[in-house]
């Protein structure tokens, strides 16, 4: 399965340019043979949270139309990163996923809002899971800060995901956390992790380092610190091999730790 990771630079608040740029990169990834294409977080507006009233995609219509059309025309699965959306009860950070027949298979709004980037002041949190099917691939998608919550990714793995997609705008100062957390999520869940971060100039502090990690924890590909489009082949059969070799799903003792109430 060929995965096209689009480590994109988006322009702050420049929605028109960002849609055009994302479309061009998706077309290029498909031309290079990608079967699944993945975008980063909030690529339509960037983190222009103060301007969401003008910039956010109303009910996600523009994004859905674009991804629907491209996935069908190019016959590719698209994990559409995320975009800022304006819904009736506020703004959300939303990921749309389409299969290669142009059908929407996932719609997810970021569940854990990241206070350090003021998300909690401007956005509403989603509360639904994001488990979906891309052809034969049992997959799930989460957004950036969500990876700090192992129980959330575990819930998706327990629901059958073997490939976990992560779209992000993860800044340079904590890039070591990004790498370590992603590797841990891959190993503990025995899943592939396909994680696509944004890139920006040095002043804006985003240095890419998107990653594809095997369920054994081996890193198959790391992005550099420039805008980049990579098409990487992955062999999904290793998931079942590793799960048979170390059967953590059978060895779990959920009665000891699920539903534990933490008191402060
Ligand atoms: N956009 C985000 O959710 C950033 C998360 C982040 O930087 C972190 O350290 O966590």
TrEMBL record:
Would the keyword Hydrolase turn up in this protein's UniProt record? yes
Domain (CN hydrolase): give its ranges: 1-236
Extract the InterPro entries matched here.
Answer: C-N_Hydrolase (IPR003010), C-N_Hydrolase_sf (IPR036526)
Top-level division of the source organism's lineage: Bacteria
| Signal peptide per UniProt | none
Which keywords are on file for this protein?
A: Hydrolase
Question: Which GO MF terms does the UniProt record name?
Answer: hydrolase activity
Protein family = Belongs to the carbon-nitrogen hydrolase superfamily. NIT1/NIT2 family.
PANTHER family xref list: DEAMINATED GLUTATHIONE AMIDASE (PTHR23088:SF27), NITRILASE-RELATED (PTHR23088)
This protein is called Hydrolase
């Amino acid at each position: 399965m060929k995965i096209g990771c689009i480590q994109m630079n988006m322009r702050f608040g420049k929605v028109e340019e960002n849609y055009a740029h994302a479309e061009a990169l998706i077309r290029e990834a498909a031309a290079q043979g990608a079967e699944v294409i993945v975008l980063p977080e909030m690529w339509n507006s960037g983190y222009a949270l103060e301007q969401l009233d003008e910039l956010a995609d109303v009910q996600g219509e523009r994004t859905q139309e674009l991804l629907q059309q491209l996935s069908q025309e190019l016959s590719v699965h698209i994990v559409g990163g995320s975009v800022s959306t304006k819904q009736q009860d506020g703004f959300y950070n939303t990921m749309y996923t389409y299969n290669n027949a142009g059908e929407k298979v996932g719609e997810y709004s970021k569940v854990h809002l990241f206070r350090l980037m003021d998300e909690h002041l401007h956005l509403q949190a989603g509360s639904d899971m994001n488990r979906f099917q891309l052809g034969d691939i049992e997959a799930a998608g989460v957004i950036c800060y969500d990876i700090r919550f192992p129980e959330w990714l575990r819930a998706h793995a327990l629901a059958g995901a073997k490939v976990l997609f992560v779209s992000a705008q993860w800044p340079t100062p904590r890039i070591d956390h990004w790498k370590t957390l992603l590797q841990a999520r891959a190993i503990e869940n025995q899943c592939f992790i396909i994680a696509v971060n944004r890139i920006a100039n040095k002043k804006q502090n985003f240095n890419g380092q998107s990653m594809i990690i095997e369920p054994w924890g081996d890193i198959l590909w790391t992005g550099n610190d420039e805008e980049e489009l990579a098409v990487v082949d992955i062999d999904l059969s290793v998931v079942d091999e590793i799960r048979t070799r170390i059967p953590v799903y059978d060895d779990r003792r959920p009665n000891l730790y699920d539903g534990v109430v933490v008191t402060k």
